[in-house]
Design brief:
Blueprint: H1 17-29, H2 36-48, E1 53-57, H3 60-70, E2 78-82, H4 87-95, E3 99-103, H5 114-120, E4 125-129, H6 140-150, E5 153-157, E6 165-166, E7 169-170, E8 178-182, E9 195-199, H7 202-212, H8 218-224, H9 246-277, E10 282-283, E11 299-303, H10 311-320, H11 336-341, H12 350-358, E12 359-362, H13 370-384
Parallel strand pairs: 2-3, 2-4, 4-5, 5-8
Antiparallel strand pairs: 1-9, 6-7, 8-9, 10-11, 11-12
Helix pairs in contact: 1-9, 2-9, 3-4, 3-7, 9-13
This protein binds pyridoxal-5'-phosphate (PLP).
The site of pyridoxal-5'-phosphate (PLP) has 14 residues, from helix 3 and helix 4.
Length: 385
């Protein structure tokens, strides 16, 4: 019987009939690339972000690249970020000829350690790129304080953090230069591939919009176009091809409307894990500050010293029970490219190493049923009693 049971994946998108109908509407309209749906998604997102500028792109990676480009990161500059992230966070600095400087995390947030940022600052440092790991906010006051004292820019990697709050404010509305969200298939709201840059800075917004689509200057175009033919445009920079399609935006419009409901369901799942797993030989994930909201993109437990089995074996045994688990992340310092380019060693990053060697991401997604979760909890009890 158990062999026939449905596999509980580690993540799953939550796409409804509204999204499907909206995509079909785009297909029928003939507007399949950037058009009215993208504009609507951007303006809906902007409303959610307290009217900050919202610029839709085809991935968060593209968004991070554009944000760093817009704040003027270039060859020889250094951008401080965390080793405990996806490679996209760091690679965007390389796109611009800059160096990502990787530092350790704090265990009580799983996010970048502000003291480690302080220690990593050099005369070449230009920016800090914090990652709200799993959907729990970084310690932004301390990061902003350090950045302020050293004249550094801040771009937040909020790929996991919609909707997350820090001291009551939604991520995307803090005082950073820009914040970038991801709508990749596994993220809390999904468009398949997609991302959004949010900024209160008109200059950054202008530059990101310009570079998003081949460096075509829409403003110059609009200002002088009345006497020019409709086919006329001006290229003023060697831009990129990072625009969002209306097919993706069709999904985003409805995902955004459902985001509150999705977050509440993820919160329920996290609350139940918190309650039912605390007596096992596990360290539960960092909780948000009191009164704050965690997006719960990930629910990452850490095996304690007295756990009867190792991370790999736990994941293998869970898979045998039909439950998908994952690891977030293989830290960047363990990947050949980053390790060799910057001579990084595991002992430089003890907290990231501990989270990597002991960490397991448990299934969490809005469509997860109570029965699915019972199976995860029962399987963990059987393995970790
Ligand atoms: C998913 C992710 C990204 C990249 O997002 P894409 O939309 O896939 O480009 C960047 N940073 C982190 C931390 C992520 O999890």
């Amino acid at each position: 019987m158990s062999g026939a049971r449905r596999f509980v994946p580690f993540a799953s998108p939550d796409i409804g009939e509204e999204e499907i109908a909206e995509v079909v509407d785009s297909l029928r309209s003939g507007w399949i690339t950037t058009g009215p749906k993208t504009r609507q998604f951007e303006s809906d997102f902007a409303v959610r972000m307290g009217n900050a500028q919202s610029i839709a792109v085809n991935s968060a990676t593209a968004g991070l690249h554009l944000a760093l480009e817009a704040i003027g990161i270039g060859p020889g500059d250094e951008v401080i970020t965390t080793t405990h992230t996806f490679t996209a966070t760091a690679e965007v600095a390389c796109y611009l000829g800059a160096d990502p400087i990787l530092v350790d995390i704090e265990l009580d947030t799983s996010c970048i350690d502000p003291a480690a940022i302080d220690r990593a600052i050099s005369p070449r440092t230009r920016a800090v790129l914090p990652v709200h790991y799993g959907g729990r906010s970084c310690e932004m006051d301390r990061i902003c304080d350090i950045a302020g004292r050293h004249g550094l820019r801040i771009v937040e990697d909020a790929a996991h953090a919609f909707p997350t709050t820090y001291k009551g404010k939604l991520i995307g509305t803090l005082s950073s230069d820009a914040t970038v969200f991801s709508f990749y298939a596994t993220k809390t709201i999904a468009t398949g591939e997609g991302g959004m840059i949010v900024t209160a800075d008109e200059q950054i917004a202008r530059q990101a919009r310009l570079m998003r689509l081949h460096g075509i200057d829409r403003d110059a175009f609009d200002r002088y176009t009345s006497t020019k033919p409709s086919w006329y445009y001006q290229v003023i920079a060697p831009g990129f091809k990072y625009n969002m399609t209306d097919l993706a935006a069709s999904l985003g419009i409805h995902q955004l409307r459902k985001a509150e409901r999705f977050q509440l369901r993820r919160q329920e799942i996290a609350d139940r894990y918190n309650e039912e797993l605390h007596e096992l030989s596990l360290v539960l994930p960092p909780q948000p500050l009191r009164g704050d909201r965690h997006a719960w993109h990930l629910y990452v437990v850490r095996l304690s010293d007295d756990a009867p089995l190792h991370r790999d074996e736990l994941i293998r045994r869970m898979a045998e029970s039909g439950i998908g688990c994952s690891v977030h992340y293989i830290p960047l310092h363990r990947h050949p490219y980053w390790r060799d380019r910057y001579s990084l060693r595991p002992e430089h990053f003890p907290n990231s190493e501990l989270l990597y060697q002991r960490g397991v991401s448990l299934p969490i997604y809005s469509r997860m049923t109570d029965d699915d979760q019972t199976r995860v909890i029962d399987a963990l009890r059987a393995l970790l009693h």
